[in-house]
Amino acid sequence: MGGGGCGRRLAAGLGRGGGKAAYAVYNQSISIVPDTILSCSGLGFVYPDHGHSVRALKDVSFEVRRGEFVAVIGPSGCGKTTLLHVLAGLLRPTEGSAELFGKAPGQALSTALVFQENSLFPWMRVVENAAFGLEMQKMGRAERERRAAGMLERYGLAGRERAYPRQLSAGMKQRVAVIRAFLSGAPVLLMDEPFGALDRQTRLWAQQELMELWGAERKTVVFVTHDVDEALVLSDRIVALGPAPGTVAAEFDVPLERPRGPLLEPDAEVFELKRRIFACLDLPTGSSRYSYAP
Amino acid sequence: MKTVVALARSGWLVALLLAGWEALTRFHALDPLFFPAPSLLLVTLGRLIASGEAGRQVMRTLERTAAGFGLGVAAGAVVSALLSVSATVRRAFEPLIAALYATPRLTLLPMVMLLFGVNDLARVLLVGLGTALLMMIQISDAVRAIDRNYVDMAVNYGAGRAMVIRKVYLPACLPQIFTALRLAFSRALVMTISVELLSSQDGLGSMIWSAWQTFAIEKLYVSIALAGALGLLSQRLFEELERRVVPWKDQST
Fold this sequence. Notes:
Helix content of chain B: over 70%
Largest sheet of chain B: none
CATH class of the domain at 9-110 and 186-283 in chain A: Alpha Beta
Distance between the termini of chain B: 25 Å
Strand content of chain B: under 5%
Structural class of chain A: alpha/beta
Radius of gyration of chain A: 19 Å
Shape of chain A: globular
Number of strands of chain B: 0
Number of strands of chain A: 9
Number of helices of chain B: 10
Helix content of chain A: 25-40%
CATH architecture of the domain at 9-110 and 186-283 in chain A: 3-Layer(aba) Sandwich
Oligomer: heterodimer
Order of helices and strands of chain A: HHEEEHEEHHHHEHEHEEH
CATH architecture of the domain at 62-199 and 232-252 in chain B: Orthogonal Bundle
CATH topology of the domain at 9-110 and 186-283 in chain A: Rossmann fold
Strand order of the largest sheet of chain A: 5-6-7-3-8-9
Number of helices of chain A: 10
């Protein structure tokens, strides 16, 4: 299953039969016209730093449609996190504009953040953390904790509701942070390398769980990562930023059938897509003269 | 049973030292005039408790400590709140706080007495000053050390300023506030006893000084031991309080 825009793009892209059918169902049930809910145009951001300012973003333009899962990928230090902070309304762009539902970002309850680390409040129990978004919406304690507990139970955290974050593994903590974002009711989720600090096995499981949640809850997601495989497994579309100061180098549709397994069975299409992304990011695409190949 | 085990675990060294001391005085290896046997000190303690003197002096010291500590915590909290809100205020106050904090507080006793008279108000104010300074320094450090992520997260979920303070700043600072409270109380106790030693008619400090002046060696030992016990007990109380109020903190470290 995928976002609103993908069905349309699929026809022009590298489509496959199975995926087409799945997208078509979604398009009919949710919205006929794929509508843009988030857009950046000419977005730039400069950190003021006593005299020598640091430019993090330059002329970033892209759009995200309702229900779409967009991965933002780029080398470290290219301003991915800054971009996410702008979309969350925590930073105001110094040039150009970002719009969420036609307004400046930062409106209450429009976005929900997930960070790589320290997403959970250490002083709140797991259930309180998961219900934080609902609490900020003034929902009563009993009701919000009932909902959070239900969600926690469904995603393998039964019996951990009363624990504190320090008693959870890193993977579990991120799972709670993701659950909180989905529970909050915010239509747009902004994730900043949420699985970046997890070991490889845990990360693969976390990706599959995120896909399951996303399949059930239908949110628009902007997912920052530097891992090309992760972007391919999760997203409908990949926005690639070039090195600092970040600007959009290219966009790639990911017309792969859902649900996708973690393996992305290698075929010519996936390989070609990956090669293009690697080339765009200036990553090595073949054995170089430095390789140890015999 | 648990308490017995805990006592044995932390008290064996003290017990061993006391036993050694007792033995050494019994065999006259130590001069009992300077090192009265612990058993004798225990009798003296019993006598001081029975006469009500120990209780009265301890209470006087505790009253002054608590008054100074309470005053200092309140003042420290108010000033730290102001410092956290405004960078302008912080820049203006910081050198003053640092300078006062680095000054040995006891040296300010004559000045405080000059201004407020030789009375309990002066003593309590001096005790409170130390507490307030410690609280200010610890709290403003704690506020500055808060991970931006937590604030961003709360704001993003729709928390207003008051909510961010209640849900992020206060709980995030709480462990350090408790450390500051524990430290501040023990320093307030030390300060009170020092002030009493120099200028007071009652309290543990004055008891220690008058015991020295009258060469009541057993009483001298007992009153110093009482001061130590008071310090130890108050630390344990604050630790227990912290365990209850800050349950999310990893207590093993």
